Amino acid sequence: MSIKLLTWLTTYILIVLCELGDKTQMAVLLITSNNPAKRWLIFAASAIALTLCVIVEVTVGTTLARYISPAAINRGTGLVFLLIGVISLTRHFKVLERTGLAGAKQTEEMPFGKTVAAPGPDSWESTAKNL
């Protein structure tokens, strides 16, 4: 198997697997379910939109590869994902502290001797409002 065919096949399989169940696919599914008579128009619009997105991604990737090594891109991408994770966790814990749910270990006796966590001082609706 040639390296070109292997690259094409690997990219194709990876993209198909990543796109299954992705939010873009869900959006197309919802739009199509609301307008089943216009399915070919929706197909064409979504295919063109995805193609344009991929053109931008390939162009940016090619430009980055000229100036930055793949190892540096991998490290940078990993750092960005870690940063996003730390920011998400920090915001999550701030919301828990603000709503008074942080460190709450309230339990409630249930019939038959089981113990389950009791709901916090605020309901999920008030927690959602504070987000």
Overall description:
The structure is a single chain. Strand 1 and strand 2 (115-117) form a beta hairpin. The protein is flat. The protein is mainly α. The mean pLDDT is 83. It has helices at 3-19, 23-34, 39-67, 70-99, 124-130, and strands at 107-109, 115-117. The chain has a two-stranded antiparallel ribbon.
The average pLDDT is: 83
- Could you tell me how far the N terminus lies from the C terminus, measured between alpha carbons in angstroms? 52 Å
Report the helical percentage. over 70%
Structural class: mainly alpha
Strand content: under 5%
Strand order of the largest sheet: 1-2
Number of strands: 2
Q: Label the overall shape.
A: flat
List the uncertain runs: none
Using the CA coordinates, give the radius of gyration: 23 Å
Name some characteristics of this structure.
131 residues, mainly alpha, 2 strands, flat
Strands, helices and their partners?
Layout: H1 3-19, H2 23-34, H3 39-67, H4 70-99, E1 107-109, E2 115-117, H5 124-130
Antiparallel strand pairs: 1-2
Short summary:
With 131 residues, the chain is mainly alpha-helical.
